[in-house]
Amino acid sequence: LEAPLVGEALGYRRRARVSLKVDKKSRQLQFGFRKKQSKEIVNVVDCPVLDAGLNALMSPLFELLKTFRHQENLGHIELVKGDNTLVVVLRHMKALDEQDQAALEAFAKEQQVSLYLMPQSDVLNRVVGDQAHYLETGVTIPFEPNNFIQVNQDVNRKMVEQALNWLDLTAEDRVLDLFCGLGNFSLPMAKKVRSVIGVEGVDAMVEKATHNAEINQLENARFFQANLEQDMSGQPWATEKFDKILLDPARAGASGIVDQLSDLGASRVVYVSCNPATLARDSQSLLNQGFQLRKLGMLDMFPHTSHLESMALFVKD
Ligand SMILES: C[S@@+](CC[C@H](N)C(=O)[O-])C[C@H]1O[C@@H](n2cnc3c(N)ncnc32)[C@H](O)[C@@H]1O
To answer: Is the pLDDT of residue 35 over 90?
Structure first.
């Protein structure tokens, strides 16, 4: 068991979704977070676990939205921190009132944040400011506010470094990064190895990861779209052999792919998990395939919550 990776206890979240709703009885706009297992919204304008810059936007944003003429059309707010800009996203359920929109744009300019409007759940329009990016272990990773990014930047950085260490990367390695997202692990790895293939389910993120490799001048990283719940035979990347594999699935784990990992030839597998239950289940499969569990470490990505992130190293001699 390795020492846990920890970061700051407060100010660590670089993204949050703020719920908005007009209360039926009082007709007042509510701005905050949902009560556990409830639809009720608790007004919150000070969230100490949120990045200080994002937290400072909460109160003025609530005051602004209270002045809107059509508050019933408001859906929710997303607050996201990039290293170049803070981002505010407004999901609205009907076309925004012109005056309301003008006031919001003026607010974004005054606060020097990027503003996106989200008229539908899959449509994002940037109306003020720049696209956000974050810097990670020597690479730049641009993202859209609806793309998955790791919530805790400080612990993410330590996590990527530890994963690269545990994989014991060499300049000759061919590496496979499953559930690769925007290339959070793939791009830093590509700087150290012969080649990286990243596989991700969301098309838009595969495109973005490919673009991210280009802007970082990493010609040895390629990305493919695949649903990793399905059989991988027939996938172009699945016929190749790899020396090392990293996987970082969502809470559901990797039951669809984990049974097939030993076919890919790797001697080292690093499994990053946000759900100990699916990690335990998937570990059993790796042990059955002849891998040994060499290292296990915890990461406190979400202080003050019950969520636990972990990392396991499996080796086959
Ligand atoms: C925990 S995130 C990790 C992303 C990336 N490794 C990072 O560090 O930012 C899990 C990723 O798995 C992707 N994903 C979830 N289910 C999937 C599936 N069935 N097939 C392929 N990718 C999937 C999600 O879109 C998401 O990008």
So the answer is: yes
For ligand 1, is residue 184 a contact (CB within 6 Å)? yes
pLDDT at 176 over 90: yes
Phi, psi for 114 (deg, rounded to 5): -85, 140
> What is the whole-number distance in angstroms between the Cα of residue 253 and the centre of ligand 1?
10
In tens, the pLDDT along 207-216 reads 999 999 999 9
C-alpha of residue 89 to centroid of ligand 1, in Å: 22
Closest Cα partner for 108 from 150, 77, 69?
77
Whether 230 is in the pocket of ligand 1, judged by its Cβ within 6 Å, is no
Taking the centre of ligand 1 as the mean of its atom positions, its distance from the CA of residue 15, in whole angstroms, is 17
CA 294/CA 281 separation, integer angstroms: 17
pLDDT digits (tens, 9 = 90+) for 227-282: 999 988 889 999 999 999 999 999 999 999 999 998 999 999 999 999 999 999 99
Tell me the C-alpha distance between 297 and 264, whole Å: 25
- The bridge status of strand 268-273 relative to strand 309-315 is antiparallel
Q: Does the pLDDT of residue 217 top 90, yes or no?
A: yes
Site to probe by mutation for ligand 1, drawn from 14, 179, 212 as the one with most ligand atoms within 8 Å of Cβ, is: 179
This prediction has a pTM of 0.94
Task: Say if CB 5 and CB 303 are below 8 A apart.
Answer: no
Question: How many A from CA of 167 to the centre of ligand 1?
Answer: 20
180 is catalytic: no
Q: Please, are residues 99 and 160 in contact by the beta-carbon 8 Å criterion?
A: no
Of 49, 50, 117, 274, the catalytic one is: 274
In sequence order, the 6+-apart residues with CB closer than 8 A to the CB of 305 are: none
